[in-house]
Design brief:
Elements (H helix, E strand, L loop, with lengths): L5 H11 L15 E5 L2 E4 L4 E4 L2 H4 L8 H11 L13 H13 L4 E7 L2 H18 L9 E5 L8 H6 L3 H4 L10 E3 L16 H16 L3 E6 L3 E2 L5 E2 L4 H11 L3 E5 L23 E4 L11 E6 H5 L21 H16 L2 H19 L5 E7 L2 E9 L4 E2 L6 H11 L2 E2 L6 E4 L7 H18 L2
Parallel strand pairs: 3-16, 5-6, 5-7, 7-10, 10-11
Antiparallel strand pairs: 1-2, 2-3, 4-12, 8-9, 11-12, 13-14, 14-15, 14-17
Helix pairs in contact: 3-11, 4-11, 8-9, 12-14, 13-14
Length: about 450
């Protein structure tokens, strides 16, 4: 294709490309064509700190030499082979590496494409498991999830999701899900104090499981942090209690670590923070360092054994993705794990986590800040109309968007969740870049709430 002007690219972007979660009648193009570490560069040469990790998936920065080299080396072998009846050495090595790193008991890996498909795989595996396990329980057909949960945008993952603004339109298409209030210390259930949130949430969970465990196949949870809900950070101990109760009542546990895994919380997997081993661990986003679409659903030998049998028994898992286990994705995922070791990523995160906490403490003192919350290098700053009553701004006023629009003028790319300003930089972010992100957010908040 002949060279295209920047103006033509912008016109085509408006007219031809349908952007997700975007009102195209109001869309103004931002066309990014280069990356450099934790910086992105648009077609006009403007540089921006990637304050959202390119939607929470970039880990070691853009154009990392080790990751680039891994892709090039794999291209010299093969770019893609199907996982249906075939395999590839690179993909096999990645499965071995993930099993070695994962919480104890997770011994088998099913590869797919993205976070929603990783969750979809777990939902279907759990459903089928109860029909063909050693003691079948076909009545276990329902799922338990939290309010404001987000697990992706396929029909199955939306069914266990709970963000009304995203999902209400599709309600007639969804299967029914049992739901519990999110254990949110800032917005607890009526009559529950902040200090009672943990005991209240655990009590509600046990009550539901005691009464309905015979029909519940699995509980789905984002460990520690409900990201798309506005960075709701669960009280310490909740995840551990969920694991103990689901095990007590023989309900499978699906841990959706698509957003919170791969080092985001300060450990490789969020489940490690409370020494939890789920029945399913769903990974994507940072799995390949933000380079390639790839996801993995890890599970236990208990689940695996229930799917073994003869061809005539039809116990196999009839589910698959064309690019599941793609060797290019596997190669860059292996390199991503190597860089974690070589650059001591988890250890070097600790000063960054502390610096972000310092900035959040200062920002919390601004007018119209209802709550700030942080877990590792995930943070949310909630804007409210009235701090005393926690009254939110109407979402139509775009307060969070205004903050991010100003931050962009200061060379920082952010994306809000309604009235919550979200900061999720690459793990490779520098302290200086963190300072610049925080300053841009603080200046944006002052203007957005003025």
């Amino acid at each position: 294709m002949p060279s295209v002007s920047r103006e033509q690219l912008a016109r085509w972007d408006r007219q031809l490309v349908w952007h997700p979660f975007t009102q195209m009648a109001e869309y103004e193009p931002l066309i990014l064509e280069q990356g450099d570490g934790c910086t992105l560069i648009d077609i006009h040469g403007n540089r921006y700190i990637d304050g959202t990790s390119s939607l929470w998936c970039n880990v070691h920065g853009h154009r990392h030499p080790r990751l680039d080299a891994a892709l090039r080396q794999q291209l010299d072998r093969v770019a893609h082979v199907t996982a249906l009846g075939c395999s590839n050495p690179t993909t096999i090595r990645l499965a071995r590496r993930l099993v070695d790193l994962a919480p104890p008991g997770l011994q088998h890996v099913f590869f797919s494409d993205d976070g929603a498909t990783a969750v979809e795989v777990a939902l279907k595996l759990a459903f089928q498991y109860w029909r063909q396990c050693e003691r079948p329980r076909p009545e276990k057909t329902r799922y338990l999830a939290l309010s404001e949960a987000y697990h992706g945008d396929t029909i199955g993952s939306v069914s266990v999701g709970g963000v009304a603004r995203f999902h209400a339109m599709f309600k007639p298409l969804l299967f029914a899900t049992d739901r519990l209030p999110a254990p949110d210390p800032y917005r607890p259930p009526p009559g529950v104090s902040e200090g009672e949130v943990l005991s209240d949430a655990v009590g509600r969970l046990e009550s539901v499981l005691a009464e309905h465990h015979q029909r519940i196949a699995a509980m789905v949870i984002e460990p520690l942090v409900q990201a798309a809900a506005g960075m709701i950070v669960h009280p310490p101990g909740y995840l551990r209690a969920v694991r103990e109760l689901t095990r007590k009542y023989d309900v499978l546990l699906i841990a959706d670590e698509v957003a919170v895994g791969m080092g985001r919380t300060g450990k490789m997997f969020a489940c490690e923070q409370e020494q939890v081993s789920p029945d399913f661990l769903c990974l994507a986003k940072g799995l390949t360092g933000g380079y390639m679409p790839m996801a993995a659903t890890l599970t236990t030998d208990r689940i695996w054994q229930a799917f073994l049998g003869t061809y005539a028994e039809s116990k196999a898992f009839f589910h698959g993705h064309t690019y599941g286990g793609n060797p290019l994705g596997a190669a860059v995922a292996l390199a991503t794990l190597d860089v974690f070791d070589e650059e001591q990523t988890l250890a070097t995160m600790q000063p960054k986590i502390a610096r972000l906490a310092e900035h959040l403490e200062r920002i919390a003192g601004l007018a119209h800040i209802g709550h700030v919350r942080q877990c590792g290098l995930l943070a949310g700053i909630e804007l409210v109309r009235r701090e005393a009553t926690k009254e939110p701004y109407p979402w139509e006023e775009k307060r969070g968007i205004r903050v991010c629009d100003h931050a962009r003028k200061e060379g920082v790319l952010l994306r809000p969740l309604g009235n919550v300003v979200v900061i999720i930089p690459p793990l490779a972010i520098s302290l200086d870049q963190l300072d610049r992100i925080a300053a841009a957010v603080e200046n944006g908040i002052r203007r957005a709430v003025a």
